[in-house]
Amino acid sequence: MRHSAIALGWVCEVLCEGHLQSSLFSVVLLIASTLGTAVDAASPAGDALEAYRAAARDAGAGGLDREATEGWIGRLSDAAADGDPLAEEALASARRLANSIGAWDESSRIVARELLIHATRDADRARLCSEAGEIRRNLSRQTKRSEDRRAAIGAFAEASAVIEGLPPDADGEMERRSSVILNTIWIAELESECTDEPERSRALDTWRRARETYEALLAEGASPVGALLMTRWTIPKIAAREAMHALLLERYSVALPALRAIGDPSADVTSPATCIQEAANRFPAPSRRDPDGYVRFLREWLDVGPAEART
Predict the structure, then answer these.
(1) Tens-digit pLDDT profile for residues 66-92
(2) Residues 82-86: contacts with CB within 8 Å, 24+ apart?
């Protein structure tokens, strides 16, 4: 009965919190851990979870205020002692609460504890690593610290490495491939935001790898699924980011194929002409280290670019 009550409590918790997770995978992970855990004895983490869910239900549609949320983050985290069968579930709930109020530093500490508990290199760890990457990415945008960006990059890279090392699974193949593509996109984005080398230059190869892997998926007649589909990344959108970064780094031989890959962009994707103009505004020709190379690039684009994209 306690097990069933906890499963029902999780549903109420999600409804009462009234927010979506930054990762679709965290919901799946929490369901699996909830339904797969049998509790025969009293559990401090289980007691904290039941009390928290009762408080969330009492709070109603308005949800818990920030002060109460912070209190429950601390209580759930403290209750998740080593060896407690519901420690992972308590930490997952605390992490979601921290995410809901943008407490990324606290959320980062919590997910680090979860990764220590769940050391097995399985699909659940891959999802948890992706969640850790998203948390670290959000933290890096608060702190602007290179070490936070690198931690996010490392988490996404581990998620992909774990996925690629899993036994074959025909039913889950598209989700796995989509997840690896999305992780690669997030890594490219983070590397582009870095101010140091070699990350900034490495981003060009990472953007290209994400684009080409995505192109290969579509060439097989497959379609993106899961978070890759939900985030609405497309080939033109990836190519536009790749081209912009190449222009800012004066890597013109990279910018040309990326611009051509944009093709006929939709309304929500930067066109090649706009991409070139935005890069020129951010990095005018007189400021470039290789002005002659920039002029050659512009002339070549006028020669090879689609007519409708050159205006």
Answers:
(1) 999 999 999 999 999 999 999 999 999
(2) 84/43, 84/44, 84/45, 84/46, 85/37, 85/38, 85/39, 85/43, 85/45, 85/46, 86/6, 86/37, 86/39, 86/43, 86/45, 86/46, 86/49
Element (H, E) at 140: helix 123-143
Q: Could you identify the residue written with the tokens 């090649």?
A: 272
Amino acid identity for residue 97 in this structure? L
Residue 29 pLDDT more than 90? no
- As a whole number of angstroms, the distance between CA 245 and CA 223 comes to 27
Distances (CA, A) of 103 to 1, 42, 70: 34, 30, 9
* Cβ(73)–Cβ(106) below 8 Å: yes
Query: pLDDT tens for residues 220-253?
Result: 999 999 999 999 999 999 999 999 999 999 999 9
Contact call for residues 4 and 38 (beta carbons, < 8 A): no
**Cα 233 to Cα 193: distance, rounded to the nearest angstrom:** 18
Per-domain boundaries in the chain: 1-117, 118-229, 234-311
